[in-house]
């Protein structure tokens, strides 16, 4: 397993994509640090960019990586190694590469110009979102035999969680505006890893006061121990369930 | 050594292998033939555990392949087209394969030397030509002295010198009493390298016997016309089937 991971990582970390992605993230972070001295403004801008792009890039990259390595995966399967180890080594290599890019690209500017708790949360949320969407991408990849279809499914999931879902939530909130909706919105947030990440970030900033009564409720929920526990648990489920399903399908897939 | 019992496999609606039975013995060299899409590669992939059959069982050396991966240590597999991670160097690929079989210390480097791969070990796999990649695949298949060699179109894409080197190596291993399974469309290669012929047609074994027997049955004294006759028969069988279906 670790031997497989070692070589998978070696291949992926030397890829052009890993370098370009890290440099891109670093450039974004540096430019935002140059524009503003206020750390909370920096983390807000970084968050807005991150929440949109990191799931997209993770999903597309993980899908293409799986299909580019398909023949190699086949060759590995002909060797005396367990299927699950072949799969997990590929998945972990992708997650580690995406996470390292974020940690280096965003982390180095932070080391240079300072960071606060919200920026640390930003790094964690970035890593979590990368693994969630890499999981979606691997699930999409094992479900179909066609690269274009798999990329389509990954993109559809990204569009759903990043754009469509918020529209649905807004629609629900407007339709039922006469009822108390705090708990319902909280439940809705748990059903979307992107929103969950965003709320966790926003709670670190002082702008939750701008979000009215629901904002205050969220602030109270996410600052309590049980609230953080539930949020972490929900994110863990988002990380593990797609990956678990993908592993199960992979074990029975034909190559 | 390898027994295939009642294997069936469907891809969607297409029945690729239909209640398939075959025995492969050590010391024999088998030519696996059949038209495109007849199930040759699926059979090989089922033996290697890459395709999971709907029903039936395969045993390799009396050990069922279900839920066990150690039997693959005895198999050297050369895929039809070898794809490798682009950024891994030849030397690293070899050490990775060695890492997967830590208990084997004695390597067969004959092909590595013959193909001059040692001098190229710092080249990344992504920069290699298709033929060089085939050479790497071939060298890897023989590297661990496996008792079973499964070669899927081994000579496709190789230059004439490399083809001769590879053929000599296959003959040498055959003389050592190994089980060799070759698929190819190049009949002259098969005649040279194998002593038994297996002809698959639409997921069923149409013929499985020695090459002498094949020549006798078909009444031809040469290998290629004998195979051509076999193909003709399969076509007749098919036309008979359709007539029956209409009645």
Automatic annotation (TrEMBL), chain A:
It comes from the Bacteria. Keywords: Membrane, Transmembrane, Transmembrane helix. One of its GO terms (molecular function) is ABC-type transporter activity. Pfam families: ABC2_membrane_2 (PF12679). The chain crosses the membrane at residues 12-33, 45-67, 87-113, 119-143, 155-176, 228-246. This is Cu-processing system permease protein. The lineage of its organism: Bacteria, Pseudomonadati, Bacteroidota, Cytophagia, Cytophagales. GO terms for cellular component: plasma membrane.
From TrEMBL, chain B:
Keywords: ATP-binding, Nucleotide-binding, Transport. Pfam families: ABC_tran (PF00005). Residues 2-227 form the ABC transporter domain. PROSITE patterns: ABC_TRANSPORTER_2. This is Cu-processing system ATP-binding protein. It comes from the Bacteria. One of its GO terms (molecular function) is ATP binding.
């Amino acid at each position: 397993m670790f031997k497989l991971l070692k070589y998978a990582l070696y291949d992926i970390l030397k890829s052009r994509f890993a370098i370009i992605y890290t440099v891109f993230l670093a450039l974004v972070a540096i430019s935002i640090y140059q524009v503003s001295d206020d750390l909370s403004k920096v983390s807000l801008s970084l968050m807005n960019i991150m929440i949109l792009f990191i799931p997209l890039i993770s999903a597309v990259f993980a899908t293409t990586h799986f299909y580019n390595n398909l023949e190699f995966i086949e060759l590995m399967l002909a060797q005396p190694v367990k299927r699950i180890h072949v799969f997990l080594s590929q998945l972990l290599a992708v997650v580690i590469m995406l996470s390292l890019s974020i940690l280096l690209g965003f982390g180095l500017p932070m080391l240079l110009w300072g960071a606060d708790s919200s920026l640390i949360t930003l790094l964690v949320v970035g890593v979590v979102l990368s693994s969630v969407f890499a999981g979606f991408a691997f699930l999409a990849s094992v479900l179909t035999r066609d690269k274009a279809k798999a990329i389509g499914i990954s993109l559809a999931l990204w569009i759903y969680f990043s754009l469509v879902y918020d529209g649905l939530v807004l629609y629900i909130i407007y339709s039922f505006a006469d009822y108390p909706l705090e708990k319902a919105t909280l439940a809705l947030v748990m059903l979307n890893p992107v929103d969950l990440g965003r709320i966790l970030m926003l709670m670190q900033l002082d702008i939750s006061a701008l979000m009215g009564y629901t904002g205050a409720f969220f602030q109270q929920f996410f600052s309590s121990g049980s609230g953080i526990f539930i949020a972490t648990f929900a994110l863990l489920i988002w990380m593990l369930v797609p990956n678990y399903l993908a592993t199960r399908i992979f074990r029975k897939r034909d190559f | 050594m390898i027994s295939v019992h009642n294997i069936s496999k469907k891809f969607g609606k297409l029945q690729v292998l239909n209640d398939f039975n075959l025995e492969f013995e050590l010391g024999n060299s088998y030519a696996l033939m059949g038209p495109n899409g007849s199930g040759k590669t699926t059979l090989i992939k089922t033996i290697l555990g890459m395709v999971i059959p709907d029903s039936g069982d395969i045993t390799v050396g009396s050990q069922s392949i279900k839920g066990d991966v150690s039997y693959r240590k005895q198999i050297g597999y050369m895929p039809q087209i070898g794809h490798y991670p682009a950024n891994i160097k030849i030397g690293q690929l070899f050490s990775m394969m060695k890492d997967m079989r830590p208990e084997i210390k004695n390597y067969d480097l004959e092909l590595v030397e013959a193909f001059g791969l040692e001098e190229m070990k710092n080249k990344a796999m992504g920069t290699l030509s298709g033929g060089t990649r085939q050479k790497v695949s071939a060298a890897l298949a023989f590297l661990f002295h496996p008792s079973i060699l499964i070669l899927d179109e081994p000579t496709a894409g190789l230059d004439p010198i490399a083809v001769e080197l590879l053929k000599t190596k296959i003959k040498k291993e055959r003389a050592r009493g190994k089980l060799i399974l070759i698929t190819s469309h190049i009949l002259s290669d098969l005649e040279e390298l194998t002593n038994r012929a297996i002809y698959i047609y639409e997921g069923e074994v149409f013929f499985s016997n020695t090459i002498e027997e094949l020549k006798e049955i078909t009444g031809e004294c040469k290998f290629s016309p004998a195979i051509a006759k076999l193909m003709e028969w399969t076509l007749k069988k098919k036309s008979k089937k359709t007539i029956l279906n209409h009645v």
